[in-house]
Amino acid sequence: MPSAETTPTSVHEPDPVRPTQEDEVAARGSELIGGPIGRRALLGTSWWTPVRIVALVAIGMFALGLVQKAPCYNGAWFFGASSQYTHACYSDIPHLYQGRGFADGLVPYFDKLPGDMEYLEYPVLTGVFMEVASWLTPGTGSIQDQEQWYWMVNAGMLMVCAAVIAVCVARTHARRPWDALLVALAPAFALTATINWDLLAVALTAAAMLMWSRGRSLAFGVLLGLATAAKLYPVFLLGPLFVLCWRAGKWRDFGKALGGTVVAWLVVNLPVMLLAWDGWSQFYRFSQERGVDFGSFWLIMAQNSGDPLSTETVNTLATLLMLLCCAGIAALTLTAPRRPRLAQLAFLIVAAFIVTNKVYSPQYVLWLVPLAVLARPRWRDFLIWQACEVAYFLGIWMYLAYTTSGDAHKGLPADGYHWAIGVHLLGTLYLCALVVRDILMPERDPVRRAGDDDPSGGVLDRAEDVFVIGSAAHPPRHAAHFDGPQVEWGSRGPAEGSL
Q: Disordered: where is this region (predicted)?
């Protein structure tokens, strides 16, 4: 008979959540693969653990996305401007191999480029990613052969990023690994994964969220700083984290996260800043100077106005709108009846940045997918949003086909494209509205209905509030108001002696 020291009977680890038991759409969908999952598979008692299954599904869907780009790989990138749009297989990657000097061995940020773009217009870590891919690209054969190889090398590296994202999401909510299937199976994720290099920043951000969920504040900051060195949007996560730590009084952890972010960003950027300022600042100049572009409501306004707003005016108005959204999210955080979950606010802040921005490129959906899954893991709502994004994915390429096909006008005219923009903006706002509702009505939150508080919150999970505004400031003051069994989770699972 085992002793109490080796078998702590007082510890009860909650069972993993079964999506097929709590989500009607997941249950119906599971019939396609043999019905709801059993307890043995759920607990991962065989080699086929949830994390491994999710990773393999993500790789499989990524591969299908590569197949979808086959018409372009076989010639549409090189021999016809409109055919890459009619086949909906456009990618920046092969075009920028030559267009940004990689084919000629130019060093990003240090060597000037021929043409209007003087230097590479991407953040430093993304530039490093692009440069490493160029080193791995064979320099023999025609330029078309080299561009094909460059795209394939980048696709292989981005596939690793996609697998990392899926695994990190599966492990962030310890009791909900199967939610990551939403990431792995997201159609917009597979379709847009190789348009650009966004998956690098998304993978680093997903890893940062995982580290925060484990209570590793400094590691979170380092990874977030690296993500910000690859793309600007991850830095916005510090805003909601600041307000959450304010409400919970977790200043030390926020300080570690902030310090790690700043130091990691500086380690990557400072050498280029000191040695090649003009090249380093190209990304920020380009972001400020570019006009309204694809996917934004600003474009609809500009194309339907006889006197469109200037770029400077749009920059000012977009900044003001973003600041208003930030203020609204901060007020929501401090007045909500129960402290919002970190993932909920992370999704809202990134969505606000994208929706108010002067460009909403189709690949920006990649920024939102992991955060949306952590914020609201519900199949119906997620698929509604994905359907809107797929409609926009097709709409933008059909619009570009229309504008590049000359008198043939094959594709979608401007009015139709405006409807496509409206659909994907409304899809994003729809998901935002549901997340806000879940914050104001915590009993509707699918994560908390399953018995958790904030599984991605790390030190915020089940923490006590110390600063609240409005009705939430009155008893009960405990932020969790936890209705299920109280379990103190450590970095490796429930602590001994917890109930």
A: 1-23, 477-499
Q: Is 124 exposed, middle or buried (0-12, 13-18, 19+ CB in 10 A)?
A: buried
* Angle between helical axes of 311-335 and 238-248 (0-180°, round to 10): 20
d(CA 37, CA 18): 8
For residue 200, the tally of other CB atoms under 10 A from its CB is: 25
- DSSP assigned state of 32: G
Residue-level pLDDT at 132:
97
Number of Cβ within a 10 Å radius of residue 34: 8
pLDDT digits (tens, 9 = 90+) for 95-108: 999 999 999 999 99
Token pair belonging to 466:
């110390």
Q: Which of 401, 374, 440 is nearest to 180 (CA)?
A: 374
C-alpha to C-alpha distance for 453 and 490, rounded to whole angstroms? 15
Gap between the Cα atoms of 88 and 315, Å rounded:
30
Burial 181-199 (b: 16+ CB within 10 A, else e): bbbbbbbbbbbbbbbbbbb
Task: Report DSSP state, residue 478.
Answer: B
* Residue 225 · residue 264 · CB < 8 Å: yes
The token pair that represents 4 in the structure block? 């109490």
> Bridge-partner residues for 494, per DSSP?
489
The 10s digit of each residue's pLDDT in 105-145 is 999 999 999 878 899 999 999 999 999 999 999 988 899 99
d(CA 392, CA 385): 11
User: What spatial distance separates the first Cα and last Cα of the chain, rounded to whole Å?
Assistant: 22
* The pair of three-digit structure tokens given for residue 129, joined into one six-digit string: 């990613």
| Whether pTM exceeds 0.70 | yes
Q: And the tokens for 147?
A: 């561009």
- Condensed to tens digits (0 to 9), the pLDDT of residues 337-374 reads 999 999 999 999 999 999 999 999 999 999 999 999 99
Cβ(421)–Cβ(295) under 8 Å? yes
Token code pair at residue 421: 């923009």
